[in-house]
Design goal:
Blueprint lengths: L1 H9 L9 H10 L10 H7 L12 E2 L8 E2 L14 H14 L4 E5 L15 H6 L7 E5 H6 L3 E6 L3 H7 L5 E6 L6 H9 L5 E5 L5 H10 L4 E5 L3 H9 L10 E2 L2 H4 L3 H15 L3 E4 L2 H7 L2 E2 L12 E5 L3 E4 L8 H9 L2 E4 L4 H10 L4 E3 L6 H10 L4 E3 L5 H5 L3 H30 L6 H13 L4 E4 L4 E4 L23 E6 L1 E3 L2 E2 L2 E6 L5 H18 L2 E3 L4 H13 L10 E3 L8 E6 L15 E4 L2 E4 L3 E4 L2 E7 L12 E6 L17 H18 L9 H11 L3
Parallel strand pairs: 3-7, 5-6, 7-8, 10-15, 13-14, 15-16
Antiparallel strand pairs: 1-2, 3-4, 4-5, 9-11, 10-12, 12-13, 17-20, 18-19, 19-22, 20-21, 23-30, 24-25, 26-29, 27-28, 29-30
């Protein structure tokens, strides 16, 4: 364990106050249940698995406009276009002094609490060079002036990436997660004694996060700023403008419900809560509610906007140039939606609050700046609770379910062509690198009906790059594919009727027994959860253990959640449900009609990574039961239609029940996909599909 131990120690500043024994204890706790002698070798490998990275290149996708324009790749370096990060931080020190701030917190967020951002909102990347989608930076004026290290806090998916992207002489990287300190604890530790003024952009911090930090950082004073000082520096250098792409209507054929029907249901919810207005800032919720789609955020068909719904009106705050097409104006008019300027949102919130409207908000999805606007005009108080839209959006109606099934079928056809081409090409010794392979997958998907783009940057990872969980190849990191290395491909597409996300891990030569056993352990974890039946009311965090148990028995684990919801031609990640080892405060139990990924894995730093992911639809299980009249028995039905590579399966590790599940799944894949591979040019794909769906 000494190598992994030293790596972890290097990520913690000597002045952190965390002892070497404590850090080692954190590491060992993740596998402490497996301390029998036969498992010690597996333990040593598992200790190094809490790693991750994020895209170094962006593929710009615009729904309806076909193939992508590849943006310039970004290497893992602290030098970005224009000024260097060091120069920017130097300017920031003066800004903090002018604002009478001792420290500044920069979040990887925007005014909509988004996971994925448009380029102009990536202030954390601009000031640090870190490109991951989850992170928080703490910058101290004293540290900046003295040349001491600044602090970046992220989760286990991104610690390795941060270590590569940041100048380690100027940055300390801290990891949050199970059995590790929280964001607030790290910050309190870094701020030290005394009382410091700590600034944070009120528009990018949620109400819930603001309150948590305000409480945890006392006696330090959390101070809301009207804008992030990082933005001011960026504007001087030339910050990206607001996106200008027009929005389009999402047709009722795929939406399954009109805007009027959705608004009527929402207003009924507001009446029950005793409120008269609802603030919506989440971009995917606005897109779903108003049956619109946009092009402002790469891979996510959403538009930069806010919304307010009252008991008799609906307002969309958006750059007006986005709605100028006659068809869109007709859609908005027929739906009773009034368009107002994007920049007038906070003013309108304050005016409506002052007029006597009682607002309902979700504190995790609305910014502190919005809360301040409500409070400035508040006369009747407000109500807080979980989103009134997240759950109905997550529970897919009949049209959305049909669209998701059709999208996954077309995706399965494209991926059968892709994986058969890939396996044949590598076996024939063709010169292929990770980028070329990712481009080929996109090319084959783009030929499918209703293709609108990718749903996230393709994770095309060969050998050790597969152990970087959110890796995406750049010209500086792209490896050649080899007969002797694992290859992990996590990819997905946006279709007009659905969103896909699938991961397969393959080996093209003769795999070692150890790799096959690790791969089969991951497969067993996938099957254990995918084949589960469970009563309605069950939460994802209660089921996460099912996917981990087969890996734990081999002394393995993975440092990420097991499942996330998937939108219907919307964001590839959605809640309010999830399958993870920890429960979120606003988490919903799994319900009929929800979609979720099931994606256990195993990652061995410097060697390989394994992940096997299908998207599932939660369905009601037919048959009698004795769980009570008000309880349904639920199960998962696979939407993904792509076989698991046969040569990596260690049959002796599978039980008869696991073999039966796998055979049944592969039979379904064959029956649904093979009819679309009957042309002469599809015979290689058809043969590949036949081989990999043969029963065990």
């Amino acid at each position: 364990c000494e190598g992994a131990y030293k790596d972890a120690m290097a990520m913690l500043r000597p002045s952190s106050g965390l002892s070497r024994n404590l850090v080692l204890g954190m590491m060992i706790s993740s596998v402490s249940a497996f301390n029998t002698p036969p498992m010690l070798a597996m333990q040593r490998r598992s200790l190094g698995c809490a790693i991750n990275a994020s895209p170094n290149r962006l593929l710009l996708r615009t729904p309806g406009l076909g193939r992508a324009r590849r943006l310039p790749s970004m290497s893992m370096t602290v030098s970005l276009a224009g000024q260097t990060v060091t120069e920017r931080i130097g300017k920031l020190e003066k800004k903090l002094e002018d604002m009478s701030l001792d420290c500044l917190i920069v979040l990887s967020s925007d005014a909509h609490q988004s996971e994925y951002l448009c380029e102009r909102d990536r202030c954390l990347k601009y000031i640090s060079g870190f490109t991951g989608s989850a992170g928080t930076v703490l910058l101290s004026r004293t540290s900046l002036a003295s040349g001491k290290q600044s602090c970046l806090i992220t989760d286990g998916r991104y610690t390795v990436q941060a270590g590569k992207e940041l100048d380690q002489s100027k940055w300390s990287v801290f990891q949050t997660g199970a059995r590790l300190p929280t964001l607030s604890q790290y910050m309190a530790q870094e701020l030290g004694d005394g009382s410091k003024r700590v600034g944070i952009d009120a528009s990018t911090v949620s109400v819930a996060t603001w309150r948590s930090l305000q409480k945890a950082l006392k006696p330090h004073v959390l101070t809301a700023t009207d804008s992030c000082p990082v933005q001011a520096i960026w504007e001087e250098e030339g910050r990206d403008p607001m996106p200008t792409g027009k929005i389009i209507e999402h047709p009722i054929e795929f939406a399954g419900a009109s805007v009027g029907e959705k608004l009527a249901s929402l207003r009924e919810t507001l009446r029950k809560k005793g409120v008269s207005a609802y603030v919506i800032s989440s971009l995917d919720e606005i897109a779903w509610l108003f049956n619109i789609r946009g092009t402002d955020v790469p891979y996510n068909p959403v538009a930069m906007s806010h919304a307010i719904v009252t008991l008799d009106s609906a307002f969309l705050f958006i750059e007006e140039g986005k709605t100028q097409d006659q068809s869109m104006q007709e859609h908005l008019k027929q739906s009773g939606i009034v368009v107002k300027g994007y920049g007038t949102f906070l003013t309108q919130v304050e005016e409506m609050s002052r007029s006597g409207l009682k607002f309902f908000i979700d504190s995790s999805r609305v910014s502190w700046a919005t809360m301040e606007a409500i409070q400035r005009g508040e006369t009747t108080g407000h109500v807080e609770g979980s989103s009134a839209i997240a759950l109905p959006k997550a529970v897919k109606n009949g049209a959305e379910q049909a669209g998701m099934k059709n999208a996954h079928l077309r995706d399965g056809v494209a991926m059968a062509k892709f994986f058969s081409w890939l396996e044949k090409s590598v076996e024939e010794g063709k010169d292929l690198d990770e980028i070329a392979v990712a481009d080929r997958a996109e090319e084959l998907r783009s030929k499918q009906e209703r293709f609108r783009g990718l749903s996230f940057p393709t994770i095309s990872a060969s050998g050790p790059n597969g152990a970087i969980i959110h890796y995406c190849p750049s010209p500086q990191t792209s490896r050649k594919l080899s007969l002797q290395e694992m290859y992990l491909c996590d990819s997905g597409a946006q279709y007009a009727d659905g969103t896909t996300d699938v991961t397969r891990t393959m080996f093209f030569g003769k795999p070692e027994e150890e790799k096959r056993r690790s791969w089969t352990a991951v497969l067993k974890g996938h099957i254990a959860l995918a084949s589960a039946c469970f009563p309605s009311g069950t939460f994802g965090f209660q089921m996460d253990v099912l996917a981990r148990q087969p890996l734990w028995q081999e002394g393995l684990d993975y440092p990420h959640g097991t499942g996330h919801g998937v939108g219907a031609y919307l964001n590839v990640h959605e809640g309010p449900h999830s399958i993870s080892f920890r429960r979120r405060e606003d988490e919903s139990p799994l319900q009929e009609g929800m979609t979720t990924s099931i994606e256990p894995g195993y990652y061995e730093e410097g060697n390989y990574g394994i992940r096997l992911e299908n998207i599932m639809l939660v369905e009601k299980k037919v048959g009698e039961h004795k769980l009570g009249a008000n309880v349904d028995v639920l199960q998962f039905s696979p939407l993904t239609l792509i076989p698991f590579q046969r040569k990596l399966i260690v049959k002796e590790m599978l039980t008869s029940q696991e073999k039966a599940y796998l055979n049944g799944y592969h039979q379904t894949v064959w029956e649904k996909v093979s009819p679309f591979l009957q042309k002469d040019e599809d015979q290689v794909a058809l043969a590949w599909l036949r081989e990999n769906t043969r029963p065990l």
